[in-house]
Amino acid sequence: METVTQQDFTYFLIKLLKAEKIVFLASKNPSNKIKFYLNQRNLEFYFYVEISFRYEKTG
Questions:
Q1: 7 in helix, strand or coil?
Q2: What domain of life (predicted)?
Q3: Is the pTM of this model over 0.70?
Q4: Rg (CA), the chain
């Protein structure tokens, strides 16, 4: 398995934060699938991560 460096992860986070639309797709496997679109291009990136996502609903 390929090792992800801190620089790669930081780059991924920056791209994720700049994403125009973020869609979280539930899957039956333990990993979560993240799909996001870059503003400049209509590229799709798929990342499989083994972390949990927490969010608070405001309002």
A1: helix
A2: Bacteria
A3: no
A4: 13
